[in-house]
């Protein structure tokens, strides 16, 4: 884990009253630092096509690379006739990685910054997001600081609605409207400012979404606000599934590259 320099802070300068409390600069070579990250393994959610495994996450030249690959091998959890989509697939067709700080690091409020580059090829679903440490989803709360699929960027916040399903506060942006493939060829900076009043999500210092915490109380009768508790963060590259889209014409391997992730909190 490297140290943030003053020149790299941008809007996280001392004048804003923030202090760096945690960062991963990915300056080591090889696997991500296990003091910061744990891995998801196997098929996980949203009927996505990728099998998550450790091998697809590596650090090179100060950058975390999460690589999506097209590779076929038997699904070790396969059960013929199973109704579970994780088990009724005879083969693994794609692999990737998903890493998170669960059980290692979590934060309540602060400024979260990630500088990264995403591939916008069809069917890819990169994301940088958080989940509350207490409660079952979606009652624990979800913040999608960076999410991309089906030719659009998303900035989402979710609690549980009165129907017991996720209640989303979302803004979406057509990728072509912000520069398309030329835009995606470069690194960009995503930011979340989260305090006791609101959650604000930014891309390159442009506000994408802002929601007051008073709107984000769970509607399940508990009156719990899942954004008044610590959250942990996740970085992943998913493929296909319920939202990812068609992969039939997508070339592999593909990469979600992360220069750094930093968390600041008020003094």
Automatic annotation (TrEMBL):
Domain of life (superkingdom): Bacteria
Write down a Pfam family by its short name. Answer: Glyco_hydro_16
Biological process, per Gene Ontology: carbohydrate metabolic process
Q: Tell me the ranges covered by the GH16 domain, including all copies.
A: 4-267
Please list the GO terms describing molecular function: hydrolase activity, hydrolyzing O-glycosyl compounds
Listed InterPro entries: Beta-glucanase-like, ConA-like_dom_sf, Glycosyl_Hydrlase_16
Sequence similarity: Belongs to the glycosyl hydrolase 16 family.
Q: What is this protein called?
A: GH16 domain-containing protein
Q: Which organism is it from?
A: Segetibacter aerophilus
